[in-house]
Amino acid sequence: MADFVDTTVKDIDERLDQLKQEVAKLEAARAALVGGGRRGPGRPRGSTSAAAPRRRRGARGPGRPRGRRGGNTRANQALELVRGKPGITIPEIAAAMGIEPNYLYRVMPKLVSDGQVKRDGQGWNPA
What we know:
The chain has two domains: 1-59, no CATH class; 73-126, Winged helix-like DNA-binding domain superfamily/Winged helix DNA-binding domain (Arc Repressor Mutant, subunit A). The chain is 52% helix and 8% strand. The protein is built from four helices and three strands; from the N terminus they run ααβααββ. It has helices at residues 2-34, 73-84, 90-97, 101-113; strands at residues 88-89, 117-120, 123-126. It has a three-stranded antiparallel β-sheet. It is rod-shaped and about 90 Å long. The termini are far apart. The mean pLDDT is 81.
């Protein structure tokens, strides 16, 4: 009976080693597909792909600002487009700015409340 248990435990240990190697291969393949150094769900903190270099927390590339750009940059761009082409629609503004229109559905009402633009049907005009 003891031989059976020893053999079974040995077989289980061998199979676990095989599965661990398979998991490592699959994690490496996944990391290569989704962008390397990101931590996946269920992985412990500090766990990253071996291929990705570690970066210090808060380290940024040269000249990269911290946080948001500020200054209502998108709103200012949209306002200039409305001033340049009165009656312009949100899809046209989005295409000119190279962004998705859904963002502008949040930006334009702010410009209305600031008294800078007004809506005329589907188009937008300077106030």
